Amino acid sequence: MRFLAKKSLGQNFLKDQKIIDLIVEIGNINNKDRVIEVGPGTGKLTEKILEKKPKDFTVIEKDERLAKYLHEKFGNKIRVINEDMMKFQYEIFSNKKLIIFGNLPYNISTQILSKWIKSEKLENFCKKMILMFQKEVADRIVAKTNTKNYGRLSIIANWKMKIEKIVDIEPSSFDPRPKVKSTLLVFTPKHSKFNFKDPKNLEHVTNIFFSQRRKMIKKPLKFLFKDFNNVAKKLDLDLNVRPQNLNNLTYYKICEIYESLIN
User: Fold this and answer.
1) Which tens digits make up the pLDDT trace of 162-202?
2) For 100-131, what is each residue's pLDDT tens digit?
3) Residues 125, 95: contact at Cβ < 8 Å?
């Protein structure tokens, strides 16, 4: 059955069998794994995941037409939840160690990634995430210090996750064809030594720095700290460098100091 994609939901259905096979191979699913697929669309990836016989398989699909179709197609082989992936509480799967698959809608991809990363229970419910993004967004997620794409997104994403780029994907792999390339990324939770009281503080700190990324770091430090010179000295910061010149760890340390002063 062919469904017309809904532009409002950012739907681009993956149809390339080679890419589908690659995604499932990377998942390395066994019969003890619990799997979630967000935005399964017409179920082409769902079908291949089922062949690996996971212990438990849940799909989250906002589109009522597709949710009904998936339920009819796969029956009790999967659990279909007709809900917005942004509103779903993934923490209910605490201690289940999920493998999460997702061809994320371009318009909410960074929001859903941020939601997962900010969750206090991420390490409890997530074993691995295999996610597809617009290439431009993926480039920002994996960007390294001193590059033009490096910024808030790479700092926040790398706070709790080890990230590996797998492959860029051509628009022809989707129906309908998007106007841009996509990129497949794998996220594995890591044990971060930075346990912030509120992840929103990291968002705030990085926003202050990168809202004026061409300015020297003296200005954002001065905005965040009354005694900014002492903070700079403590972290051995050169006040003449720019935000993209500071590595991830430095931003986490700045956030730690910031949190210690506001509470």
Assistant:
1) 999 999 999 999 988 889 999 999 999 988 779 999 999 99
2) 999 888 888 999 999 999 988 888 889 999 99
3) yes
Q: 178 and 85, same structural domain?
A: yes
Same domain (yes/no): 46, 169: yes
CA angle, residues 121, 124, 130, in degrees to nearest 5: 95
Burial grade of 187 (CB within 10 A; 0-12, 13-18, 19 or more): buried
Give the domain range for residue 47: 7-145+160-189
User: What is d(CA 151, CA 144) in angstroms, rounded to the nearest whole number?
Assistant: 9
96 neighbors 79 (Cβ within 8 angstroms):
no
Residue 13 one-letter amino acid: F
Task: Report yes or no on 155 lying in a domain.
Answer: no
Tell me the whole-structure pTM to 2 decimals. 0.92
Rounded Cα distance between 217 and 222, Å, is: 8
- Tell whether 253 is covered by a domain: yes
**Residue, of 113 and 92, whose pLDDT is higher:** 113
Burial class (CB in 10 A: 0-12, 13-18, 19+), 29: buried
Q: Of 50, 54, 132, 60, which Cα lies nearest the Cα of 92?
A: 60
Question: Are 176 and 241 within one domain?
Answer: no
Task: Please indicate, yes or no, whether residues 217 and 183 belong to a single structural domain of this protein.
Answer: no
Residue 8 has pLDDT above 50, yes or no: no
163, β-bridge pairs? 187
Q: Cβ(86)–Cβ(112) under 8 Å?
A: yes
Residues 90 and 171 in one domain: yes
- Rounded-to-integer distance, Cα 215 and Cα 232, Å: 16
